[in-house]
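Lab notebook, page 48
Experiment: co-folding of the full assembly
Goal: obtain a model of how the components sit together before planning crosslinking
Operator: M.T.
Materials (sequences as entered):
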Amino acid sequence: MKGTYLGEFEEVVLLAVAIRAGDAYGAAIVSEIEQQMGRAVNLGAVHSALNRLQEKGLVTSQMGGVTQERGGRRKRLYSVTGAGRRALEEIRVLRNQMWDAIPKAAWS
Amino acid sequence: MNTPSTPNRPQYPTAPRWATRLLHWFCAPHLVEEMEGDLHELFCQRVELVGLRQAQWRYVRDVFSLMRPFIIKRQPNGPAYREYPHPNHTDMLQNYLKIAWRGLIKHKAYSFINIGGLAVGMAVAMLIGLWMYDELTYNRYFQNYNRIAKVMQRGTAEGIVFNGGYMPLPLGNELRTAYAGDFKHVVMSSWTGEHILAYGNEKFTKTGNYLSPEAPEMLTLKMLSGTRAGLHDPASILLSQSVAQALFGTTDPVGKIVKLDNKLNVKVTGVYEDFPVNTEFRDMKFMAPWALYVSSEEWVKRAQDNAEWNNNSWQILAQLAPNADFDAVSAKIKDLRVKHVPETAYMKPEFYLQPMSRWHLYTGWDKAGNVDGRIQYVWLFGIIGVFVLLLACINFMNLSTARSEKRAKEVGIRKSVGSVRSQLIGQFFSESILVAGLAFIISLLLVAIALPFFNEVADKQLDILWTNPVFWLSGLVFSLLTGLIAGSYPALYLSSFQAVKVLKGTFRVGRLASLPRQVLVVVQFAVSVTLIIGTLIVFRQIQHAKNRPIGYDRNGLITVAMNTPELYQQYNVLRGELLQTGAVVEMSTSSAPATNLNSNNGGFDWEGKDPNFKDSFGTIAVTHDFGKTVGWQFVEGRDFSRAFATDSSGMVLNQTAVKYMGLKDPVGKIVTWRGRPFRVVGVVKDMVMKSPFEPTYQTVFMLDYGWANVINIKLNPTLSASESLAKIKAIFNRFNPGSPFDYKFTDQEYALKFAAEERIGTLASGFAILAVFISCLGLFGLASFVAEQRTKEIGIRKVLGATVFNLWQMLSKDFVVLVFIAFGIATPVAWYLLSGWLQKYEYHTEISWWIFAVTGAGALLITVLTVSFQSIKAALMNPVKSLRSE
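Observation: model returned without errors.
Model output:
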């Protein structure tokens, strides 16, 4: 398993997987990110990030069943693992710590 | 939000189909469905959000953004993707190649020796193959290759069979009329000779022939302009492309008037593509009509008008009629000479047709009349090529078998993991084929690099036959074959090991296992030693002939052709002016240059001659100053002199002629020729005028100012040659303005007589060096292998007190014995082959014992040096290291 360092885009993708819990697949994540962040995202970049996250063990995936949508093509559904959740939480704690450490005087 | 596109909505908007196709092309099959689904879904969403055009644009961008390694990469057999691995054949092959590659990388020195040696061997074989191909396709350029013949005659004189292509002129007419049904074309031809071609201020000496007008049709000239029928006009000429370019540059030559030999005006009626180098007529740079030859040369006209059947001075080429065959026609025409010239019956002369397919390789006979042509060299080099290749293959097998024994453990593990025997066989075969393939690629590179040098040495214009499927096929078949043969030992033998024994360590290589390897080394060295001895003797033979006294002084001697009427008319003035410049010490004319005795005649009569004796002499016409020009040496009598008016019918003989005639006291004797008495004034030492490998021919020198073909000039030794030549050139240009000033140095002409032998010597030495190199590589590899196998033994011996010298001796001894055996085999073989070769030369060196001694010592030295590198390294090793493991 590769290092568990999370890049900025990987963090965003991981969060999107968590948001769309149960129905997180490539296209859905793209539209989620585009909606939330208001920026255009390449499908390739998202898949690449998903692939890396899976290699790091932060998400798992399995093929979904056949649906009527997308011309009957199956989709790969991703879900956040325990390790993924911990990684997100760690980042959040770290950020909060740093927020707390900012002296009031900094904003004046 | 989850279902952005309603399923029942008609799907009008479509994504760019080419992008979809692109995706299918690069995307791994197991990911296509998922990716295409995502793309499709996003596209439908975007059509509604941002419009069709924008959505299509984004679709294309997404496809391109998916071009990533993990998407392109085909599905591995990992557990993450499938529940059970499904290895297939390609997986195993992949593994074999990987192991083979790792093996090569790990043992870099072995790999280098193995692949390099094989590549060199293949390259040599390829070069020789190309050369043989060139020789065997000689003259194939001509479309009527299978129907063209040269008329030749054979006969026996003084017990020696001769064959020749010199034909009498009336024979052509006879064949054309009396045998019209057998021939499609009968072409008279002069011999290819130098002539001056001039147009405006451009003038060149070019070689060409006078030919009957059917010749272009028979030789299927590729006309670039004009017509093949051009020679029907008696004042015409056909030029080759190269000559046309030289004379006319870019302007169209057809219809222009060219001056031939400064006396004949001829019209260019066509330009043909130059004949390729590997054809008989490569030097035929222009063709002039036969009719012009007859009308302009007095002696040819005479021969035609008087039907001189006894004047054999021309060539006759013929193309057979479609229904005729060579042997049948030969049988019909064979007695024509006796019929027309009955007095030649004692020679049993026979005319026959020599088919074009035999011109190049089968023209050449020994004294008994057996074919002794170039085909011998084709065979010789073919055999050398096979041997060099064999050496390389032997090496290759030798090393692979030696190496493979180290892999017994691998075999054991593979077997216990579940390999069956056929898989192991496949593994070892794929490995050796991989290496052979690599060697083939490298050898192609080597050939490409070596070809320019090879072409120069071999006087060829060879090219790699990149476009010839046969070439590639034979290369591939050969690599495959080498791979299979070399791989056969490990594949068939090692795969039979019992895994238990090998892994337990009780497996032992039998005592006889090294025997085949030793035999291989012996064969290799025997071949190398034979080649070395051969090379040495070829060079000795050349040196032997070069050291032969030639009877005249060729230093600073040049010859200039007498090619225009002006030179004959103003000869004496020219001579006076040239002597005056101081650049010329002496000058004379003669019927032939000193390096070329080109005229033989019979019919001489002298006191005491046996009336039945059919004599034949080399005949040379000279002028008074010839002797001083070439510096011949008198053993009896004196040189021609202007002081004696009677010398105008004087004659000088060479020593061989005196012996040949059986004269006791030749000076002052009268010799009659063609009814004219000559008085012998002197006898000169034999001059080597023909081949330096043959005995000197009996030759007579007569005084005749009219029969002159060349001017001999002795340059002033105190001036530099270039200085003298500049002065001479100025005068020649004044007296002979219609001709370019072309001269030949006699010593260079003389050196050309050795060209064929030197070519053989250079090629043979090249091959010998390569053979030795390949053998040494093999020996080196084997020695290192042996040293490695005996590491433990060496360690124990050292611990027990063996010195480095002892160990070196022990390790080297085996190889020295092998080389001795090889030498014992090579000596008689080389002696047999080379004494046969030397027999061909009448003037030849002896095979002396020291050549064998030197070669043997050299081979031994090379062996010891090669082996010592490894054995000393092994002997110096610290025993602690070699004994520590286990």
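Interpretation: The longest strand of chain A covers residues 59-63.
Next step: discuss with group before ordering constructs.
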